[in-house]
Amino acid sequence: MTFGFSRDDAGKFLGSYYDAKIYEQDPFARLDQHGVGKLVEMAVKLGKETRPNIKLGICGEHGGDPASIEFCDRVGLTYVSCSPYRVPIARLAAAQAAIKHAPKKEEKKAVKKTAKKPAKKSK
Amino acid sequence: MSKKYVYMFAEGNANMRELLGGKGANLAEMASLGLPVPYGFTITTEACNAYYDDGKKINKDIMSQIAVALKKLEKQAGRKLGDAKNPLLVSVRSGARASMPGMMDTILNLGINDEVAETIAKKTNNERFAYDSYRRFIQMFSDVVMELSKKRFEEIIDEIKEKKGVKLDTELDADDMKELVKRFKAFYKKELKEDFPQDTSVQLERAIEAVFRSWNNPRAIFYRKENDIPSSWGTAVNVQMMVFGNMGNDCGTGVAFTRNPATGEKKLFGEFLMNAQGEDVVAGVRTPQTIDQLKKVMPGAYNDFVKICNTLENHYHDMQDMEFTIQEKKLFMLQTRNGKRTATAALKIACDMVKEGKVSIDQALMMVEPKQLDALLHPQFDAETLKKAKPIAKALPASPGAACGQIVFNAEDAVREHKNGKKVILVRLETSPEDIEGMAAAEGVLTVRGGMTSHAAVVARGMGECCVSGCGDIKIDYAKKQFTLNDKVYKEFDWLSLDGSTGNIYGEAIKTVPASISGDFKKFMKWADERRTLKIRTNADTPKDAAQALAFGAEGIGLVRTEHMFFQEDKIKAIREMIVSTTAEQRKAALEKVLPLQQKDFEGIYEAMQGNPVTIRYLDPPLHEFVPTNEKDIKELAKEMGMTTAKLKQVCDDLHEFNPMMGHRGCRLAVTYPEIAEMQTKAVIRAAIKVNKKHPKWHVVPEIMIPLVGDVAELKYVKNIVVKTADEEIKKTKANLEYHVGTMIEIPRAALLADEIAKEAEFFSSVQTT
Questions:
Q1: Residue A109: is its pLDDT beyond 70?
Q2: B107 min Cα distance to partner chain A (Å)
Q3: Chain A: residue whose CA lies nearest to B740
Q4: Mean pLDDT confidence for A89-103
Q5: How sure is the predictor about B351, in pLDDT bands with cuts at 50, 70 and 90?
């Protein structure tokens, strides 16, 4: 909707756009953080102003794309929704996003904690 | 001051991969760890970008920085490039930020000319080695830099071998190598109308340019596209002093992984060749030995190598993929990088390394590429059977998985044969929403037209069903129920197997085995769940999909598309009656028929989700999508509605819109036909009350999503209808049911006015993202 073209028709011309390096990614498979992302961030911010506990999520093909999931984690969505067979992928991508977005200190702590635990277990 | 474009290995480290590329950064890192790395320098990725910006030319500034680095390298090595007395030979190798194995070019033995070859022969007292290196250099330089066909050079080698009556390269002696050099040079001159360059600095400059150029060769471009690597990254170039694995029988070269990249087993995995150079291992001219055998052949080098493997794995906290060369019993490291591995190996290595205390759980979680898990979630072909099978064609790998079944050509046949207990593969020119039931019944879908985001691909991925799309070589004859591929005819019920991960199509039955989350996979996913804050829901329109998603760890449904249910056979008739109704009474009568069926759909989904939240999107697509298209259905419907077929066709045509995606759809349907929203609300609420009653421990809280809202007043209008209907239902049964009403932010105006819309919306259940 924001791009002004629909999934059902975009196949006809997106190929030429990739060849010409106008777009590098299929905007239907990966969330366009640069443009559409601005709208998403705006909706999240405005929505939370009115209703601080508002539940926010995305669905569609993007819900299973790791780069899009990282974006969703960063802008503070509550959930992502994806096709059943992408659920495990999304679970891991969400964990990786949380690790990447964790403040540095916490990360160090986590390393210490977990490094000790398994050593005990293996005995 | 000008920018620094060239770094000696001693000046770099592993954190500089953006600038030095993966190979350069790791060579620098290994050097700083004190490992035996031949001296060298790296020309940065920025120099590559400058090369392209300057119109495919290396500018003067960069050339002079390379000259300075070369001087330093010559000093470290104690030899000089092109020197008649003490010549230095170098390798020139690519190395991008992300590993792109085999995609770009490498040139070895650079710096040899006629004079240098003679010197090397004398100095090493090994004429064969000198001319073997020279002929290899001519071969590689011609192939990579001058783009002469490799094949012709192989043919010349074969000619000489034949003349001599030998089979192996190693059986050729010094004179044969000299003869090869002569013939190669003659061929070079004949093809390129110039002599093979004797000036070693010209050799170097052209080689560096060739590596920059290889960043844009077709296979590198293809690999980048497949792996999301931006073309703006560029490649670095590593110029490194040569060490020789082909100097005699106390020399060799090999590649190895610190753990098995296929299974993850903690055991050195790799192979090597004695008296050979790198490309011999890859080319498969001679059969290499496994790495364990190095222990017997050269115990000293083997022990050093094992020690280095441990050092590197501990240092990088990951499984390493390494290249090494042994020159006169001394080991040299030429490369290390995090090794590519299968999904199974990735999980085992991550779990093992946590157990060994080598990485934290957070680090382990970062070691597995999420997309890789896909390979573990779909039924897979039995590996042994697959090995023996030969594909009949290859098309787009639209949805992963393995499927094996008998060919059918339309959705009805797929449904019928599936009910009869047959496994079928649905073969279509392309698929449309009407084919959904047939797609679900089939093991896999093969289409002639359509790409990775075609209807077939998107729906198949949603279902977790294997799909291969866009096989344009297939000619379908629907009437005869057969298709032709490469002059061979495939009839209905012939066996076909599809590999949705590679796009391979097989004209035979290949056994499959199902997927499950267990063992390392289960343990690993538990770690992921403990670490993430984002909740994961699923898009599911059927209880089967919902149950599958729950088994894969979904915490609710983020999107139920009610219209997908409408296409099912039991509902489509009533839906069509509703659509072509000309009066509100007719419409209500039709909706009465849909209501119990829709309620049953929701009950099934709530049951499958076991009390987890479910977001239901109200009817969204334009009504025109539902009207019958074939003559038989039109006649039947006309009869049912008491209309003439002409009148019915008129009604259907009136539904046609110039721009249906911007037309009468989404909440606009509920504004004009409130009775549709009323019916859907009754179904949602009644189903929830019933399921909660049956399972007192569950608390189904339906989330009703009003689609395509652009203004708060519009949302409020529809919400009022929903709330009024819902509250009446709840009051009637005296049940205690919580429910929420929200919307989808998909129209840009809604995003701009999200603060106003949030006054009425309890959730933005779906921020539409294109």
A1: no
A2: 30
A3: A55
A4: 94
A5: very high
Q: Tell me the residue ranges of DSSP E strands in B9-56.
A: 40-43
Q: Which of chain B's residues have a Cβ under 8 Å away from the Cβ of A41?
A: none
Q: How confident is the model at residue B401 (pLDDT cuts 50, 70, 90)?
A: confident
Per-residue pLDDT tens over the stretch A34-88: 888 888 899 999 999 999 999 999 887 777 789 899 999 999 999 999 999 899 9
The percentage of chain B sitting over the pLDDT mark of 90, rounded to a whole number, equals 72
The pLDDT-based confidence of B184 (bands split at 50, 70, 90) is: very high
Element (H, E) at B256: strand B252-257
Average pLDDT on B469-488 reads 93
- The Cα B341–Cα B240 span in angstroms is 28
Contact (CB<8Å) A55/B368:
no
pLDDT digits (tens, 9 = 90+) for B230-251: 889 999 999 999 999 988 889 9
**By the 8 A CB rule, do B750 and A43 touch?**
yes
Of B237, B277, B238, nearest to B136 by C-alpha is B277
pLDDT value at residue A118: 39
Please report, for residues B168, B219, B242, B244, B287, the alpha-carbon distance to residue B171 in angstroms, rounded to integers and kept in the order given.
Answer: 5, 34, 24, 19, 15
Q: Among partner residues B356, B368, B532, which is closest to A98 by beta-carbon distance?
A: B532
Q: Which of A2, A7, A73 sits opposite B453 (nearest CB)?
A: A7
Instruction: List, for residues B214-223, the tens digit of each pLDDT value.
Output: 999 887 888 8
**Positive or negative torsion for Cα B445, B451, B453, B455:** negative
Measured in degrees and rounded to the nearest 5, phi and psi for residue B104 equal -120, -175
Write down the pLDDT at residue B282: 58
What are the b/e assignments for B706-726, b being 16+ CB within 10 Å?
A: bbbbbebebbbbbbebbeebb
Asked whether the CA dihedral B480, B485, B487, B488 is positive or negative, the reply is negative
Tell me how far apart the alpha carbons of residues A48 and B759 are, in angstroms, rounded to a whole number.
10
CB contact under 8 A, B754 and A60: no
pTM value is 0.80
Q: Which of A36, A93, A99 sits opposite B770 (nearest CB)?
A: A36
Name which of B545, B311, B509, B304 is nearest B436 in CA terms: B545
HSE on the CB side for B584, CA within 13 Å? Answer: 4
Backbone angles phi, psi at B617, to 5 degrees: -90, 130
The pLDDT, as a whole number, for residue B770 is: 55
Cβ-defined contact of B558 to A86 (cutoff 8 Å): no
Q: What is the ipTM of this complex?
A: 0.83
d(CA B729, CA B723): 10
In B, minimum Cα distance to A114 occurs at: B360
Closest CA to B392 of B510, B513, B511: B510
Shortest CB distance from A81 goes to which of B450, B559, B746? Answer: B559
Taking the C-alpha atoms of residue B410 and residue B497, their distance in angstroms, rounded to an integer, is: 17
B284 has a pLDDT exceeding 60:
no
Nearest CA in chain A to B554: A87
CB spacing of A97 vs B750 below 8 angstroms? no
Burial per residue of B565-585, b for 16 or more beta-carbon CB atoms within 10 angstroms, e otherwise: bbbbeebbbbbbbbbbbeeee
Q: A98-117: b or e for each residue (b if 16 or more CB lie within 10 Å)?
A: bbeebeeeeeeebeeebbee
Within 8 A of B769 by CB-CB distance, chain A residues are: 31-32, 36, 40, 58, 60, 62, 68
State whether B549 and A84 contact (CB < 8 Å).
Answer: yes
pLDDT at residue B209, rounded to an integer:
95
Contact B538 A84 (CB under 8 A): yes
* Residues B243-261: b if buried by 16+ CB within 10 A, e if exposed: bbbbbbeebbbbbbbbbbb
Tell me the one-letter amino acid at B5: Y
